[in-house]
Design a protein that fits this description.
It is a single chain. With 249 residues, the chain is mainly α. The protein has twelve helices and four strands. The strands form two sheets. Strands 1-2 form a two-stranded antiparallel ribbon. The relative contact order is 0.14.
Length: 249
């Protein structure tokens, strides 16, 4: 992260034609080739651990943290997009979430799409918050938004505003310890763990890439909303079936 920030600052200096930045950029690129890349993280959080983390947050009267954990794990959104970028306006009347992550907003513009009705942990948190309710229409039960809230979905109970990064990390450590999750597990691992659960349940890499908002192949670089939603539905259904299979063993 420090390396990335430094390179970004110097790149800005080059664009702004600040004295010495072009020469520094050349030196940094040469030095960067000799620096090792960070090791790939291997930590995986299970669905059972996410349930325990959410319970710990609720016990500490912080349903906002529980909602954040559920959103990241179920939808595979990036953590900081959830706690700093997710808005109620990103959810339509059918409880389908469409959000353009900050990382892709200026590049591909690719949106992450997910049917929240197929994200059981998110449904539980939204019901708890009174944000959605169960209605019956033509003999069919379905969840609907209780009203049309606006603004950030995740706000700190103490301030009524989105979390500061340092504050969220502190709350994560508290919940992680209370839930008995190993200390080497990060909140950011929730996203990778959700994708891992999807792959373990038999989801294709193409569907997983669409759901995660990756644009690394031509197949997933330019995708229509319909294709993305169908991929998310298959992804969510496979994960739900996988959890039931594990619980039955």
């Amino acid at each position: 992260m420090c390396r990335a920030v430094l390179l970004a600052v110097v790149a800005f200096g080059v664009e702004a034609r600040l004295a010495g930045c072009a020469e520094l950029a050349v030196s940094l690129r040469a030095a960067n080739r000799n620096l090792p890349n960070p090791k790939r993280r291997e930590s995986v959080i299970t669905a059972e651990q996410v349930v325990a983390l959410r319970a710990a947050a609720h016990a500490d009267k912080r349903p906002s943290s529980a909602l954040a954990y559920a959103l990241v794990y179920e939808t595979t959104m990036r953590l900081w997009d959830v706690i700093l970028g997710m808005q109620w306006e990103d959810i339509d009347a059918n409880l389908v979430m469409r959000h353009v992550p900050s990382k892709t907003s200026t590049k591909t513009g690719l949106a992450i799409t997910y049917p929240l009705t197929r994200a059981p942990m998110v449904v539980e948190e939204l019901v708890f918050a009174g944000a959605i309710r169960l209605e019956q229409a033509n003999g069919i039960d379905r969840y609907v938004l209780a009203d049309r809230p606006v603004g950030p979905m995740v706000v700190c109970e103490g301030t009524g505003r989105p979390y500061l990064a340092s504050s969220f990390r502190e709350q994560w450590r508290k919940d992680r310890n209370a839930a008995g999750v190993p200390a080497n597990v990060w909140a950011r691992d929730l996203r990778a763990s959700g994708i891992t659960e999807g792959r373990a349940s038999g989801v294709s890499t193409d569907d997983a890439a669409k759901v995660a908002g990756h644009a690394s192949t031509k197949t997933t670089a330019a995708v229509y909303d319909r294709a993305t939603l169908e991929a998310a539905e298959r992804f969510a259904d496979a994960r739900a079936a996988y959890r039931k299979l594990k619980a039955a063993k």
